Amino acid sequence: MENRAHAIVAVVFLLVFLAGAILVYYWLADRPDEPLAYEIVTSQSVGGLAEQSDVRFKGLLVGHVAKLGFDPDDRSRVVMHLQLKRDAYVTHATYAVVAMQGLTGGSVLELKLGKGSRAPLATSDKHPAQIPMHQSLLDFLASSARKDMQDLQDVLASARKVLDSDNRQHIAASLQQIDTATRKLAVIEAQLPALLDNVQRSVVQSHALIAHADALVRDAQTPVRNAAKLEASIQALAESSRQLSDKLNSQTVPNVDTLSESLLRTSRQLDEVLGELKAKPQSLIFGPPRHPPGPGEPGFNGGHDKDHP
Length: 309
Known about the structure:
Helix content: 55-70%
Largest sheet: 7 strands, mixed
Shape: elongated
Number of strands: 7
Distance between the termini: 222 Å
Strand order of the largest sheet: 5-6-2-3-4-1-7
Number of helices: 5
Structural class: alpha/beta
Order of helices and strands: HEEEEEEEHHHH
Strand content: 5-15%
């Protein structure tokens, strides 16, 4: 009976100890000051960084570099393991750059925010989240300087090609021409006041000519109005002529044949009258002679009238 009681006590003690160990483990695992693990894999240079180098965000310390080395899968890349505070603002838009701490200080890893989601970046010790690495300002300036130096070398090479012996002679001749043109411009500048005076006088004369032209235009307006009236009269006469021509075409032309026949008959009759006048001009005074009465007419006596031969 006593052995059984000891066994029960031992089992209860083990259960209490196990529960206490579990509580201590979770309490240690969930400490608010426990850092979070992140990882950076990059092919860029990380010169100036080392283990325990500071990691900063907006100038404030948020963690440190826990481990630094080459990527075992690709020896051309560098892997950095970071330990950051739990309250560090790390999102999907966070990226890292190598920055200088002051003018003479060492290098630090600077976290910055770019474009993208501002949701927190989840991570764990077994599967640390990766933060991208961007080119630092110094690296950008170095690469830009190399490119600028290359461009400068190209410019100098082009300048050497341009400034050969022949082109130098041409440039010297051009400078000589420029110097001659400058001297001519100086002479022209000295003559400029006199030219301006002439121009001013010409402008005054032009104003006088314009005023005279205005007077001539006003004087010419009356003949122009008379000419307009004459033009209107000519247009009215032309319209009347056109109407008369239309009337002649519509009325006179159809009667030309009849008129011609009448004129022919009148001409014949005139010829007969003229012939009779030539034969007997006294008929113009005494009238035409009377013919003797014919048979059946009064005064017919079967012979010639006594009064008439």
